[in-house]
C-alpha cells in the first residue's frame, strides 16, 4: 500500500498553490511520518522536496433527520501533508488523466 492516497484539489489549496507555485497538498496514510512522505513524493514525481508540514484532521459528526428518525454518522479522519519543493520545480498532477 502506498503512502500517498490522493492530491488535494480544493479552493483553499488552489489558492496556496497559486500564491506559492512550489507547494502542493496530499492526503496521506495517517501512520506515515515526514521522511516516508518525502521519499514517496520524490520517487513518485521525480522532484526534490525541501519541506513537509503535516496535519491531522479528526472526522466530523454528521446528523440527518429522516422519516425513520435521526441518522448519525461521522466523516473519516485523515492526515494532510503540505509539500514544498525546491525553487523552480513543479508537479504536473493532471498528466495521468
List the helices and strands and how they pair.
Layout: E1 4-7, H1 11-19, E2 23-28, H2 34-45, E3 49-57, E4 61-66, E5 69-74, E6 78-85
Antiparallel strand pairs: 1-2, 2-6, 3-6, 4-5
Q: Characteristics of this structure?
A:
two-stranded antiparallel sheet; Alpha-Beta Plaits; 97 residues; 6 strands
Note down, in words, how this protein is organized:
By secondary structure, this protein is α+β, with helices and mostly antiparallel strands. The chain has a single domain, classed as 2-Layer Sandwich (Alpha-Beta Plaits), CATH 3.30.70. About 20% of the residues lie in helices and about 40% in strands. The chain has two helices and six strands. It has a four-stranded antiparallel beta sheet, with helices on both faces. Strands 4-5 form a two-stranded antiparallel sheet. The longest helix has 12 residues. The protein is elongated, with a radius of gyration of 16 Å. The chain starts with a strand and ends in a 12-residue tail after the last strand. The mean pLDDT is about 90.
In brief:
With 97 residues, the protein is of the alpha+beta class.
Amino acid at each position: 500500500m502506498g503512502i500517498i492516497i490522493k492530491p488535494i484539489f480544493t479552493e483553499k489549496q488552489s489558492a496556496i498553490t497559486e500564491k506559492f507555485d512550489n507547494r502542493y497538498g496530499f492526503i496521506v496514510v495517517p501512520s506515515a511520518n515526514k521522511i516516508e512522505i518525502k521519499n514517496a513524493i520524490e520517487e513518485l514525481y521525480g522532484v526534490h522536496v525541501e519541506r513537509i508540514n503535516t496535519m491531522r484532521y479528526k472526522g466530523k459528526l454528521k446528523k440527518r433527520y429522516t422519516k425513520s428518525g435521526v441518522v448519525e454518522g461521522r466523516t473519516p479522519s485523515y492526515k494532510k501533508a503540505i509539500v514544498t519543493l525546491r525553487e523552480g520545480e513543479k508537479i504536473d498532477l493532471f498528466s495521468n488523466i
